[in-house]
Structure formats: structure tokens, C-alpha cells
Write a structure and sequence with these properties.
This protein is of the alpha+beta class. It has one domain. Helix content is 36%, strand content 21%. The protein is built from six helices and eight strands; from the N terminus they run ααββαββββαββαα. The strands form two sheets. The protein has a six-stranded antiparallel β-sheet with strand order 2-1-3-4-5-6. It has a two-stranded parallel sheet with strand order 7-8. Strand 1 and strand 2 form a beta hairpin. Helix 1 crosses helix 2. The chain is globular and about 80 Å long.
Length: 248
């Protein structure tokens, strides 16, 4: 005679019980960790914004954020104003850095008005305008922050990704790529927006020419590079009208 534990009904009941126990445990952990996860995301955004405007702990080759222990303090020190641009209007909002750019882009695609965050920073007597951008790489989302001066000349940039190929597209977050954007012009001499193209076969591999609207591509990462070009063009173009107000 078989034991009760050998029956199909026992196995099914046991499996259902384990699923309920594990599911409840995971739900509890997710709920318990949510505040910490949200706080980490908040600090990371501050670090990204600061990095783009040159407030970081970089050495000769590595990209290093200010530490999490001082990020809040440094953010308050260097970011003097946070703006939210909606159409022709803009207002100050000290939580603008928490705006979800992904959701805002989706809203715009569905016919809504998109909120555009812009952060005004000051460092060594110079004013920086830092804008978030977001796009699509080869495998998943890519994003970044671009710091500009009042003429939309790039002063610094930070890029990151969710799942690009290590050693190829993932290299957009390394300094040898990000630093190439410094000094690049986004507008032509007439004030028309041109963007910056990550160009394969760029004739200026050292990026000495800053008015060609190109930087050198990463070998083997064409699609990721195209994604960077596209998000710069689509997202930063939306800020042109605001920068025109700075000239009035």
C-alpha cells in the first residue's frame, strides 16, 4: 500500500503550499525593501546629474561618482535650480530630478504634454544646464544626462544602459566614450539644432573638431551608437526654445 505522501494529490497540495509560502515571502521582501530601493534610485539620479556637470571623483581613466554619503549634500551645493518645462511654460520644482523620463516620453506618444526636467548648476563660476535623455540601444533601454552651456555646447555627459553587450555597447558608460562629447556643438551657426551623431568611420577620431556634430563610434557597437545619436537628437531638441529665452 502506497504512503499518503506518494499520492498525486499530496504532491499537488505540497507544491501549492510552497508556492504560497515563497510568494508571500517574496512579496514581504519586496515591500520591505521598496523604501531602500527608491532611496538608492534617488541618490543615483543625483550622482548622475552631478557627474555630467563635472562633480565627480574621476581619476585619469575611470568614471567615478561622488560617494553616496555626500551625494545629497553635493547636489544641494551645486544644483541651484530645478526646472520643469511644459510646452511654452516652465516652473521651478525642487523634485524635478525625480520625474520619470520614460513615462513622460510615453505620455507624449499618446498625445499628452511631456514634462521636461532641466537642472541648472553652478561650478567654478560657470553655469551648467543638465538635461536627461532616454532611448533604445541594441537590447534594451539606454539613458544619460548631458550638461550644456547657454549656447548648447556640451560641457559633460553621462551615459548608462540596461543590457548592452559587455565590451561593446556597454562601453557607452566608459570615459573614453563619454569624454568625447565635451565641447561638441548641438547648434549650427544659425542656431538650428543639429544634434551629435556617433559616427562609424568618423574622419576626426581624436574629436578635435567640435563643430562637425560627430563623435567617433565604438567598434562593434553600431546599433547602440545609433541609439545614443537618436536620443540626443530627439530629446535635447525639445530644449531649444528654452535656451532661446536665455538670449532674450
Amino acid at each position: 500500500m502506497s504512503k499518503k505522501t506518494d499520492s498525486n494529490s499530496y504532491t499537488m497540495i505540497f507544491a501549492i503550499g510552497m508556492v504560497l509560502v515563497v510568494g508571500s515571502l517574496l512579496a514581504f521582501l519586496a515591500s520591505s525593501l521598496k523604501p531602500n530601493i527608491s532611496e538608492n534610485k534617488r541618490i543615483e539620479k543625483q550622482q548622475n546629474i552631478l557627474y555630467a556637470m563635472g562633480v565627480n571623483e574621476n581619476d585619469e581613466s575611470s568614471a567615478i561618482f561622488v560617494s553616496t554619503s555626500v551625494a545629497e549634500q553635493e547636489f544641494q551645493k551645486y544644483i541651484k535650480k530645478q526646472l520643469v518645462i511644459e510646452g511654452d511654460n516652465f516652473s521651478e520644482d525642487d523634485k524635478a530630478y525625480m520625474i520619470d523620463v520614460k513615462k513622460e516620453k510615453s505620455k507624449a506618444k499618446n498625445g499628452g504634454t511631456r514634462k521636461l526636467p532641466l537642472f541648472v548648476g553652478e561650478k567654478d563660476g560657470k553655469t551648467f544646464y543638465i538635461a536627461p535623455i532616454r532611448g533604445k540601444g541594441l537590447w534594451d533601454a539606454i539613458w544619460g544626462y548631458v550638461a550644456m552651456d547657454e549656447n548648447m555646447i556640451v560641457q559633460g555627459a553621462y551615459f548608462d544602459h540596461k543590457g548592452e553587450t559587455p565590451g561593446l555597447g556597454a562601453n557607452i558608460k566608459y570615459r573614453f566614450f563619454m569624454d568625447d562629447f565635451k565641447g561638441e556643438h548641438l547648434l549650427d551657426a544659425s542656431g538650428n539644432f543639429k544634434g551629435i551623431r556617433v559616427a562609424k568611420g568618423n574622419n576626426d577620431p581624436k574629436n578635435d573638431e567640435k563643430t562637425d556634430y560627430e563623435v567617433d563610434a565604438i567598434a562593434g557597437a553600431t546599433i547602440t551608437g545609433d541609439g545614443v545619436s537618436a536620443m540626443i537628437k530627439s530629446d535635447l531638441k525639445l530644449y531649444v526654445d528654452y535656451f532661446k529665452t536665455l538670449k532674450q
